[in-house]
Amino acid sequence: MNSIKVLDAKGLACPMPIVKTKKAIDEIEKGQVLEVHTTDKGAKNDLTAWSKSGGHELLKQEDENGVLKFWIKKG
Questions:
Q1: Are 28 and 57 in contact (CB under 8 A)?
Q2: Number of structural domains found in the chain
Q3: Which residue intervals define the domain UPF0033 in the entry (predicted)?
Q4: pLDDT (0 to 100) of residue 1
Q5: Distance between CA 10 and CA 67 in Å, rounded?
Q6: How far is residue 50's CA from residue 55's CA, in Å, rounded to a whole number?
Q7: Rounded CA gap, 74 and 38, in Å?
């Protein structure tokens, strides 16, 4: 999946992955995809809810050896 920007939020505890995701999504254009990498297990629910409430689309998520990866399309 092509992402325009990758956010490395590994090792950060809640709420920092969401705070950094908000900042990063503001830096890309509508329709572009932000890829987020985090080790915070709470991010799964947080990013899903945040994407919906913000009008963004969570395209895909993966768990790769304890690193949660999300692809969020800016709405």
A1: no
A2: 1
A3: 7-31
A4: 80
A5: 7
A6: 9
A7: 18
Residue ranges making up the domain that contains 42: 5-73
What's the whole-model pTM score? 0.94
Q: How far apart are CA 65 and CA 49, in angstroms?
A: 23
- Just list the catalytic residues: 14
pLDDT per position as a tens digit, 9-61: 999 998 999 999 999 999 999 999 999 999 999 999 999 999 999 999 999 99
Cα–Cα distance, 63 to 32 (Å, whole number): 22
Cα of first residue to Cα of last residue in the chain, in angstroms, is 17
Residue 42 belongs to domain with CATH number: 3.30.110.40
Give the Cα separation of 9 and 68 in Å (integer).
10
